[in-house]
Amino acid sequence: MTRTATLPDIRPAAPTAGDATRVAVSTVIFTLRRDRGADRASVVIPLVRRTRDPHEGLWALPGGWLDVAESLDTAAARTLAETTGLAPSFLEQLYAFGAVERSPSRVVSIVYWALLRSDEVIAADARENVQWFDAASLPRLAFDHNEIVDYALWRLRNKAGYSRIAHGLLADEFTLAQLREVYEAVLGRRLDPANFRRQVENSGNLIPTERFRTGSHRPARVYRYNQDVELADRGPLVRH
Amino acid sequence: MTRTATLPDIRPAAPTAGDATRVAVSTVIFTLRRDRGADRASVVIPLVRRTRDPHEGLWALPGGWLDVAESLDTAAARTLAETTGLAPSFLEQLYAFGAVERSPSRVVSIVYWALLRSDEVIAADARENVQWFDAASLPRLAFDHNEIVDYALWRLRNKAGYSRIAHGLLADEFTLAQLREVYEAVLGRRLDPANFRRQVENSGNLIPTERFRTGSHRPARVYRYNQDVELADRGPLVRH
């Protein structure tokens, strides 16, 4: 209550603690991009250029204030749509960032993260002050947003299972070569195809179909993600 | 800003959104208890009886308001110490709960969770309005705290690895039979000893020592948890 402590109290009785802090939501959205001539895809995220202080002119994660009448999930989806036009089908809470000095005023940010398939990105309007950046080589961002992206990247690399990543970043059906390319982009390094195949098959998180894709190489079996794993992974908070 | 919208604006320029919401912290603390005559241990949590509205008289998770000058982690440790006298060595953020109707006024609760060894519990003062409850059969709690405990239990059962659970609930060194007893309490069912041994050994998350414990059974190898796994699991936010 620091900022109102010296003013006459003409307001109705109000709680005297916990309300000098504002709540915001921000979202880290990962997708894959393959630049012309690049030999592999990279993980990119959309950022929004700030048009006011603090940190005017710096790039920041899309987000905004929590409205008193909306849930955290709703606020994440709304602010994301307002700032970027994106509407990812999976938008999950990642972590609450609340260091005292992370903003000039006291702000707790509830951070969400999402995975987007390339076709979902294309569907979104292009916005003038929105730009996509390689998540592995960002400029200095506003507030503690570099730290937030680092944490989200770590979760993507270490915690997201095969089924989750396949569902979020690939089409409904895919070959193991396509899935491996996604993992190579996420991890930023090449993977041995035989080892990768073994790990995926042992994980039980992907379902092999009886279909094969043919092309310049020998026919490759088509897989799909396992929705049971996906839902189990998200636990009892899922209410779809 | 609903509650101040009709009042003359005599305050210094202040943000006009995000500040009608208050931020609280709450903590779910798991430990094991073996009741006299019980054939296995159960998972218990401490609850605090509310002495004021809303929900006066109901049991609630220990917690309190976030102070404007403290971090979320600090607030969790402080409110836990103030309400229960407990000071767990591992206290981690679990999830932010922010449904609009979860409290009569708008409150976002940042929930932490912790594991406590029995000797840490004994060290804490007994408080008059604090009581330990079996996590699997709770009464109706204040606010959405039943839902919060259910989520924390799901995380404990599904996400916490062997190393984390061993470190949080057992002494520094333990036999596989002791670890299995902990898992049986967490899962609420018997586990096959041979299968359990195989899974633990394959996980690579525990380190066998060259020491054995003897007693009424045949000598049992002593294990310790793998601190590297523990720290890797918590990712880049760890700053100890």
How would you portray this structure in words?
The structure is a homodimer of 240-residue chains. By secondary structure, the first copy, chain A, is α+β, with helices and mostly antiparallel strands. Chain A folds into two domains: 2-158, Nucleoside Triphosphate Pyrophosphohydrolase (Alpha-Beta Complex); 162-237, Arc Repressor Mutant, subunit A (Orthogonal Bundle), CATH 1.10.10. Helices cover 30% and strands 26% of the residues of chain A. Chain A contains seven helices and ten strands. The first copy, chain A, has helices at residues 72-84, 118-123, 145-158, 162-169, 176-187, 193-203, 227-234, and strands at 22-33, 42-49, 59-60, 63-65, 91-97, 107-115, 130-134, 173-175, 206-213, 220-225. In chain A, the strands form two sheets. In chain A, strands 1, 2, 3, 4, 5, 6 and 7 form a seven-stranded mixed β-sheet that branches. The first copy, chain A, has a three-stranded antiparallel β-sheet with strand order 8-10-9. In chain A, a hairpin with an 8-residue loop joins strand 1 (22-33) and strand 2. Chain A is elongated, with a radius of gyration of 21 Å. The two termini of chain A are 39 Å apart. The interface between A and B is large, with 47 and 48 residues. Chains A, B: It holds the Pfam family WHD_NrtR. Chains A, B: InterPro entries: NUDIX_hydrolase-like_dom_sf (IPR015797), NUDIX_hydrolase_dom (IPR000086), WH-like_DNA-bd_sf (IPR036388), WH_DNA-bd_sf (IPR036390), WHD_NrtR (IPR054105). Chains A, B: This is NUDIX domain-containing protein. Chains A, B: Residues 20-157 form the Nudix hydrolase domain. Chains A, B: It comes from Microbacterium pumilum.
